[in-house]
Each structure stands twice: as structure tokens, then as C-alpha cells.
Amino acid sequence: MSINKRLIIFNSVIMILSMLLVLLVSNRALNKMLDNSVKNYLNTSVYAAMEIRDARLNEMEKGASLIIRLDDVREFYQAGNQEQLAASLSDLKQEYEYLDLGMFVDASGNVLAHMVENADRAGKISLPYIEQAPGRVIKTQCVADLRDIFEKGSGLAENYAVTLESTGELSYDGLVAIVIFPVKDTDGQVLGYLMLGDIINKNSYYTTEYTEIIPDSYLTISLDDLRICSNIFSEDKSDYTGTTIPDITQGTKTGNEIYFGSEYAPIGDNYYFLYKPLKGYFDDFQGYLSVGIPETIFVEMLSVNRKIVITVICITFFIILVSSILFGKSITKPIRASADIARNICQGDFTVAHGYGNMNNQSRETKELLVAMEEMAETLYRNKMDIEQYIDELVKKHQEADSLSQQLMEMNSTLEQKVDARTIELQQTIEELKESNQVKSRFLANISHELKTPLTGSINASELLLDELFGTLNERQTKYVKNIWLSSNQLLLLINDILDLSKINAGKLNVNPAECLVNEVLEEAIGIVKSTTYKKSIELITSVSPDDLEVWADKKLLKQILYNLLSNAIKFSHENGTVTISAENVNCPDNGRKYVKFCVLDRGIGIDEKDLERVFLEFEQTDNSYSREYGGTGLGLPLSKKWVEVQGGKIELHSKVNVGTEAIFYLPAAEEQEI
């Protein structure tokens, strides 16, 4: 397949994948934009519906304010003239015909006067609004029994009662938009209250006003799950008041108990809906105000946007495809010319390459390619001449090589004898070195044992002197004896390390693995180095997860490993520094077995990366100056490495100069042995 075709296919695949990605992203973005647009539209619709309710409440407040501000009403209150108060309510009813409830009560809640159509509420009524907010204007809606509002036998309660579609029974629960306005005397003292109400059940005012503001949208006001006011209608049914609302919890709760989603409305189409809870004056739930808009409005808008995106993608793909074809031809033209040159060179014609490098309308890179082909042709021609000359010389040297070959064959027979003799010498040398190493190990072990006995006596004697069993020591004597005790103990530790090293090299080290509680061993190791941390004001931080973590190891060797690593970390840390010790369970990626990972981290002087391997060699330190400044023999890390390895683990060291050192070693987990 030609480069041009490959380039076209490659660009086509990249473009198709890119366009599919763009289409996917744009589709998600359009869906999200649609979702936001629908929510904003529905929130605006809810706001408009609430504004209609608030406008009715404000109008009732205005009417109440006008009539109460008349001096006659105050006089009627003070005189207890109930007939005149009732007449004032009648005048107010003539001005605001939609009023369904009108009542004057005194400050204690006793009914003074009411509208003719309202029920006879003589006596005292309970008005929690007045009790909780005395002297204030209250505008809200509340749920009430319609039979308590209208006079029995008037038929008005039945006019506003909602007929249940499921049973045909009447529901007398009503939602009333109510205004309570205080009546005050000239001194501002509350004489009583004027209570006005407009029943929302079957009230066409709300649905008509809403439809004029937001056409092609439905409005429903419901108590519990029963529609009491709605502008929904269809060909089969003109009024859906008395029907039940769907399960709103199938929608998405967007906050403040507002539900958003999609439903199949009784109108016969899918609608986006938004249910907003109606709350009373005391923030008590009373019902839902819901609005809905057809999905088709937004689906058509989404479809148009998708068509635009697809059209732009197709046009872009066509332009890039044509550009790829033209660009591919411009690239392959000099390549074809180079191929022609190569074929001619293969046929032995080295002159045809001249002139291609001066081709017009070529990029700098293609010109460089053709010039390089010309130079290659010239070089090949010169090489051909050199090869012919070399072959002539080679023929001459071949004759000389024949004579040398005879001499080599004669020397080869004696060479094998010399190699065999040298091999025997090397084997003898290796055996001597092994024996020498064993002698050294035995010598170290013997001399260590010989030194250990008198050294133990020195330690015991110095301890007896320090305990002042043979008499009191002065300050100077105590100092010298303490130096003897410290030096002897340090020498004893060195001798023990040499003995352990000899045992390991001889394969005689006794290892007794068992279940060990990590926290317990760690506390013992820390107890040994704690005095050193106090001297340098170093903080020790431990982290063992979980607290009852157990490891399968020789407890004595594990404690010695931790002691060596901790003492190194403290020794090479700066004063007032920190040393962190952690242990946790890990899985080995090689064999899937469980191990306990121990980590000792310090922020001290660190080790150069090139010296990390040397620190595990016996009697080695990264710098002789460390030995002078910090002390030590260079056996701590080599011994720790061998102790870890004989227990089936491994050890690692990571460090940076002036940053710190992290020593990590792994030992089998106890639970792995149980399995």
C-alpha cells in the first residue's frame, strides 16, 4: 500500500474518531444544556404562578388596609357595633367579589362580624397566626374544611368541594389564600383583626392568569395527591380537577423538596414537570404547586442543534480528506524520485542522480533527501573503486595468510596444553583462597571467643566498681570506670558481630522462626536506642498497621536488625531531627505471598547513590571520615542483610545526600505460615 493511501486512511480514521468524540461530547453538552433550559423555564413558570398568588394576596391586603384605615371602623370596634362591622364587610365584598371569607375578630379571637355567606362562627375561634405573630400583617395560604367556612345548607361548600374521580365522593379539604390585617387604635394598640380569604379550589383566576402569561403549559395545585385547581384538559376530558397526581418521587430531587422529571400527562403527551411544595406561615407543608411543559418544544430545538453539529462535522471531514490527498501527493513525489535513483544505482548507473536536487517547488526536507541521494551515488561510486582496489590487495594478502595458517595450526597443538596447565593452576589458587577464608573465619571465631572471656570479666568488674560494692568512688574514678564499662560493652558488641558473621559464613547460624508481635519487638529495640535519641533530641515516630501485626521471624535476630537500622538512622541524623519506623502487610508481586514490610526513615546526611552497594560489604564504610566522626566498624548493614536473607526476606536501601536514608526490609507474614 502506498504512503499516500496510508496517509489518507490514517487521517480518515483520526478524523472519524475525533468527530465521533466531538459528536458524543456535543450530544452530552446539548442534553445538559437542554436539562438546564428546561429547569430554568420551569422555575420561571413556578415563579410566575407564585407571583399570581402573591398578587391576589397583595390585592386583599390593599382592600383590608383601605377599610381598616377608616375612622368609622375603629369606632365600630371600640363601640362593639357588630352590625356596622358586618356592613363594612358587605361593602368590601361588593368591591372584591372573589372574596370567599371575611371576618372581624377582637384581640382575643372572639368573632364580631362575618360575611353573610360565611358560617355563623359566634364565639371564640383559635387563630394560631395571631397568637404567634400579634399585631402583624399575615399573608399566606392554609388548609381548611370548607364546611367550616360556609353556612350549612347554602350549597357553597359543595360548589368548592372537589369530586374524587376514583370514588365520586366530595372532598371538603380546601386551600385558602388568607390575609389577616390588625385593627389598631390611634395609640397603636391592637383592637382586633380583619381576616379575608380566597378559596383556591376550582378557582379559574389562577389557571387563567397563568395560561395568559405562559401558554402551552399546565398548572396544577394539589392537596396531598389530589388536584384541586388545574388548567389541564384533553379531547376526552375538559377538567382534571379531582384526579390524582403521579408519583413525584420518580423525578429528581433538586433541593428544597422540589422534584423535577418527565411524565406522561393526561393531555396525551410527555411533559417535563416541576413540583414545588407550598408552605404555610409556619413553614408547614400544605400541598404542591406543579407546572409542566411539553417535551416536544425542547426536543425540536435539540434536534436542530444536532443537525447543525453533524453538518459541520461532515464538511470538516470532506475538507480534511481533500487536503490529505493533496498533501500526500506532495510528500510521495520526491520519494518516487528517490526510488528511481535507487533502482538506477542498483543497475550500476551512478550518473542518473545528478539534477534531482535542483527540482523546483519542493520543500526543504525533500530537497535535502534528493541531494543526499546524489551524494550517496557519488559515495557508492568511490566505494566501488576502492573495493576493486581492495580486492586486488586482498588476493595478495590471501597468499600470505595461507602461510600464516600453517604456522597457527602448528601453534594450536601447543596452546591447548598451555590452557590445561593454566586451568589447573587457577583451580589450585581457588582452593587455597577458600581454605584461607575458612582459616580466617576460624581465627576470627577463636580469637573472639578468647577475647570474650576476659572482656566479660572487665565488664563485670567495672559494674561492681560502679555499684560501689568495694567502697565509694570519687568523681574522677567514677568517670574512668564508666569509660572502661562503655568501651568494654562496645568491644563486646563488635566481638558478637564478628562471631555472628563467622557463623553465617560457616553456615552454622541457628535461626528459630516463630510468630512475633511486631509492636512488642519494636518497643524492645527502641528501648535500647532511647538514651541516644535523648542525647540528640531526636523524635522517634512509629506506625504499625494493624496494631496486632505479626511476623514469622527469629525474635532475637529481628530485634538486632531493627536495633542496627535504628542506631544507624539516629547516628547519621542531625540533632532535633526525626526518625520514622513503620510496619505493614504487603503482597509480593512475584509470588503473591504476604510479607511484613519494615521501613526506617531518617532525614540525616544521606549516602551517595554510587556508594549504596558498598555499605553491604563487610568492614566497609562509604567514607573513612564517617568512621572518624561517627564511629562504627561497617558490620551493621552487612549483618542485617544476612540476617534478613537467612529468614527468607530481602533488604533495600534508598538514599540521597543531605536528604536522608530509607532502609526497607521484608519478612514473611505470620498468617502466611498458618496457610
Strand content: 15-25%
Which structural category fits the helices and strands?
A: alpha+beta
Head-to-tail CA distance between termini: 59 Å
Share of helical residues: 40-55%
Task: Determine and state the CATH class of the domain at 35-309.
Answer: Alpha Beta
The whole-number mean of residue pLDDT values reads 78
Domain Histidine kinase: 446-671
Transmembrane segments: 6-25, 308-328
GO cellular component, one term: plasma membrane
Catalytic activity: ATP + protein L-histidine = ADP + protein N-phospho-L-histidine
Using brief descriptors, characterize the structure shown.
alpha+beta; 53% helix; six-stranded antiparallel sheet; 14 helices; Heat Shock Protein 90; five-stranded antiparallel sheet; 675 residues; Beta-Lactamase
